[in-house]
């Protein structure tokens, strides 16, 4: 690996950028405001970090972007592509039609055409019905010039993707070889509704993803940077531009994972709890074997139930700008509102009139920010009670995300982490790494490329070791396809879950492989 | 008689998760099926068993198979209609109503979908008053009723009617057929008269599920815990409030068995609770002292938001309230305890009603 790399992370408040050298040392870092159109903020951060680095731009080989554009499109119900929704599974599945659980306003915002055709598979790979190719062809013809993308979901596609692949071939035959088709087996796991929802969202993000990718590439070119562009995924790994345009839903919620990965890199810890303190909230997550731990339960994206894996985070409504209310008779209450980015005008220590968590920490001498004399009149005992209350909440949240009662290292990142003490209950040590305030952009820059597969195997037909080997091989192939170098690609996680009540000794095997970027 | 509409379905879903006592399967698919049917065909009448004539036919409707398969291969909706029509054709009698066989989990909502499509009422009753994992664990079996005939159907259009000699054979044959049908199928057994439902069913349980759901939603709206309301309505007890400090699971005979250890929150150190489950929560103990056991209902609620937690979601660090409710009287008979008491599930303890255990502990 030679050359420099740029990492950019778009957050709700700030867009951060860093440049790392070939030893992954931070040689430039900037924090800029996130702009409403996101792309402008990315361009600003890019030009500023390049200006401050003073390096030969031609030596920048890779540029990584973790961005909120796809998340915003779903949450704001804007800029969504027109889609054809095909479900393969009739006569099964008719009792719950596609899009049934999607909120009405999102459905309205998404121009869509729905068809359910015969086909799909049983849990053991038998066909429920032969694939109705004529019905698919007719559907594809009926949506010609009316849609920009298609979402295809077939029953038990994670066991047998054959019908989805054949449907995609028909769509491309009718609508052109470049027509984007999202296939559910590449996107989600067992659980038809959740996987179908994720596939629908993925297809609806086709246009946003293309503009995001092309916009970033154009911004790089505009700055004279000829680097390969990569995009952050929600599991803390990267994907190539081409892959990002195919699986834009994977870009959702990549921000918190970037912070977690950055914290892991900056501390060299493979296992730790990361406490990322912002202005309004504190996000607490877990690094397990160098990767963010994923949540075990279904996650909603913009009100849509999906079985998409997200980093398992506990978010507490406490940050540097959290407002403290003093009650007339003594006593107090903490938040949940925050002065947010207006901390520097609202907080007491900055000459404002609002008592914030920052003022409490300054008043107790925990940290030196602003004008500490403005907190002198406050009762120290009361401030201590408030501080203890806040820290107890954080400690409880740290305890919640741990997998056992053992004390673990806790890494503090984010601008507000300076307010925190050097001792926390349940923490074996507190670590405040250098560059802690741009850990997210560093996380984007140092990430590896990954691939993941999840399949159900019948152990009556396949030996367990053969099934695991097959799953590993497939995961590595997916990672390489996403942009990992084949030489460095290795399996980072294997999960093997027998399926309750299922005959035939069925087991679900999930494998994740990751490798370095192709040089 | 009253009607089950979309809002009632939401409430029943939440109540059915609680009455599922940690098992019963995620009712989400059942809810979505019921919602689609009610939107298409209109609200469903809910009738008490005594609102029907004693000799009218009532047909229980359920799904059998692997929950994982049900989430993936969602039913067609036709298979549920087929098992009903096959039963009617064989008995030469039209059904006056359908009913759920269990009130916990997904099977509490599926009959609503069939009822909507067939314009039939649903009887406000079931045969468990909670969820249990095995087919003979129904109140009809306790009263010596035989599941004969049994009808089954899959989404492909296959239908089967068979005459098992007893509940064990019914279960055995149904499981085999279910595998061939793709590990998820519709099943109807114990076709009954309304009079039999009245004497051998657990009555009022759909209303109860809806009331439980209403209490939880109301508390959520008012940003408070639903625990006290639930204890009052279901005559229950709060066994413990604490944090999960450990969960172990193992797969045994197709069931997930396990144990969760809870520790009291800061301030009450030393106290702990062990919660044993086999899909459903079956036993709660503090040290050597048993606090509650099956067939009484043991429920775990998220201590922050009051939502029932199924056993597959238990994990370290969760704050939970553990509640126990008396089982319906039919389960507290010697036969009921033999069929679904702690010893049946392999726990070497006698069944003692939860109210006696709580009273003894207070001594």
Automatic annotation (TrEMBL), chain B:
Highest taxon, organism lineage? Bacteria
| Occurrences of domain S-Me-THD N-terminal (ranges) | 8-162
Which residue range or ranges hold the S-Me-THD-like C-terminal domain? 166-354
* InterPro entries reported for this sequence: S-Me-THD-like_C (IPR048350), S-Me-THD_C_sf (IPR024071), S-Me-THD_N (IPR010318), S-Me-THD_N_sf (IPR027479)
- Pfam families xrefs: S-Me-THD_C, S-Me-THD_N
Q: Quote the protein name from its UniProt record.
A: DUF917 domain-containing protein
